User: Which sequence fits this backbone?
């Protein structure tokens, strides 16, 4: 049966490596940069609670579905879906779901690398003392100087993409596995150090209050949608990343236990990132709901005024960069694997070509902060279009179709076998969530974000 199929790309040494890799994919700019500011924009504690619910009821079942599809197919998302559809007697059009995911991941990688490049640049800016005693205006000007200079951004974007390509080019065991084995412990240490610093120097009471005391008067329909979207992006769903990582998962590993741990780790990191950021934000009297600039503009002011801020600030941006790198490799891997399978290219060639393509698309994104900032077809610049199409449209469509495929189209016997669960309450709960709750949840976000339902 499917468990006997082998991936031509290799396999993780153990389920623990998968846990490191999938957590590495999940923990990224979405958890450390985006989660805190979206929480800030949506009023704090109540949003956190809704986010946790979304992770449990929608994110987790879909993540399990992606992993089981990957492991059963043992190929790139495109070919895994093609193979499984054939095996289940379904239309070969299901492979387009694989295409959708791979394409979405490709687009996300292009602008993800641009933002990750900012994080890398900030290690040097903050570490070099650029924010010492900086005022709000100075900090904003520093950020504008970076985004205003296409050349500077190009340099950081290129460096980040090149690093991603080098890791993926070395293959599953020699590249990805080695990278996550070193980078994930480093990430953990950096996180503990930065949280420790923030809690010893900032206003912890206010931060805990803000993150964990739900005020339901702040909850609006749009915050529920934001929580669901954030859960999807943060768990790396709908883009083939978890699917391809699942295709390297040893057959003996239990998918529910493994994925449960990944989701818990991702959520813990997001909360810890909140505990690193908000004590400083409140301790310094900054505005928690200041949006996307929270980390780059507001937090840097706090670092600039606090004892040790130069060192710990640089460590914070190192943390953000490492987190972004372990996510970026999971975005490049699905397309590189597909190129190896379909074109019979070497890994080096496949990852270089795919990386170059994403890099080029990323240039469009970085230009939309400067030379192309006035080019806004239908109200969005290149960067905003890339983000909108991939994360707001393709990601939920992909998630919805993954849930449909695993919940409604694959046979009960196949999913039962691949999940390794006994028929019983856990399996039934998963099936109920993946068939009914997850698709409904995703459909609501999708229609809402496309303004179909006002
Ligand atoms: N989960 C990553 C983050 O939170 O930053 C982003 C991401 C990585 C999304 C890989 C999708 C993906 F396939």
Assistant:
């Amino acid at each position: 049966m499917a468990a006997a199929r082998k991936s031509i790309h290799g396999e993780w040494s153990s389920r623990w490596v998968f846990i490191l890799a999938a957590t590495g994919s999940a923990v990224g700019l979405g958890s450390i940069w985006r989660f805190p500011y979206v929480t800030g924009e949506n009023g704090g504690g109540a949003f956190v609670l809704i986010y946790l619910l979304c992770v449990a009821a929608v994110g987790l079942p879909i993540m399990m579905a992606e992993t089981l599809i990957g492991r059963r197919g043992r190929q790139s998302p495109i070919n895994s879906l093609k193979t499984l559809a054939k095996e289940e007697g379904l239309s070969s059009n299901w492979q387009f779901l694989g295409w959708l995911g791979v394409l979405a991941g490709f687009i996300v990688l292009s602008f993800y690398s641009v933002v990750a490049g900012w994080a890398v640049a900030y290690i040097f800016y903050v570490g070099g003392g650029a924010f010492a005693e900086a005022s709000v205006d100075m900090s904003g000007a520093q950020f504008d100087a970076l985004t205003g200079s296409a050349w500077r951004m190009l340099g950081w974007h290129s460096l980040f993409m090149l690093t991603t390509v080098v890791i993926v080019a070395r293959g599953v065991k020699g590249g990805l596995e080695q990278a996550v084995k070193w980078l994930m412990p480093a990430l953990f240490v950096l996180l503990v150090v930065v949280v420790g610093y923030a809690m010893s120097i900032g206003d912890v009471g206010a931060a805990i209050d803000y993150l964990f005391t739900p005020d339901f008067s702040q909850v609006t329909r749009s915050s529920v949608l934001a929580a669901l979207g954030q859960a999807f992006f943060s768990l790396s769903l709908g883009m083939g990343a978890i699917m391809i990582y699942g295709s390297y998962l040893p057959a003996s590993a239990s998918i529910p236990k493994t994925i449960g741990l990944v989701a818990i780790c991702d959520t813990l990191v997001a909360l810890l990132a909140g505990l690193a950021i908000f004590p400083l934000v409140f301790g310094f009297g900054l505005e928690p709901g200041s949006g996307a600039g929270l980390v780059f503009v507001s937090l840097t002011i706090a670092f600039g005024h606090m004892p040790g801020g130069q060192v710990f600030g640089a460590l914070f941006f190192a943390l953000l960069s490492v987190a972004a790198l372990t996510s970026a490799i999971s975005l490049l891997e699905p397309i590189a694997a597909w190129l190896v399978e379909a074109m019979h290219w070497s890994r080096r060639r496949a990852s270089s070509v795919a990386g170059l393509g994403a890099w080029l698309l990323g240039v469009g994104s970085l230009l939309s902060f400067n030379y192309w900032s006035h080019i806004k077809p239908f109200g969005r610049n290149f960067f905003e279009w890339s983000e909108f199409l991939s994360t707001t449209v393709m990601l939920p469509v992909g998630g919805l179709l993954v849930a449909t495929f695993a919940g409604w189209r694959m046979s009960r016997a196949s999913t039962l076998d691949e999940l390794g669960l006994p028929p019983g309450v856990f399996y039934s709960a998963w099936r109920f969530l993946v068939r009914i709750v997850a698709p409904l949840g995703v459909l609501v976000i999708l229609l809402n974000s496309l303004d179909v339902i006002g």
Remarks:
- The two ends are 47 Å apart (CA to CA).
- The pocket of 4-fluoro-L-phenylalanine is lined by residues 25-26, 28-31, 105, 108, 233-234, 236, 239, 241, 327, 330-331 (CB under 6 Å).
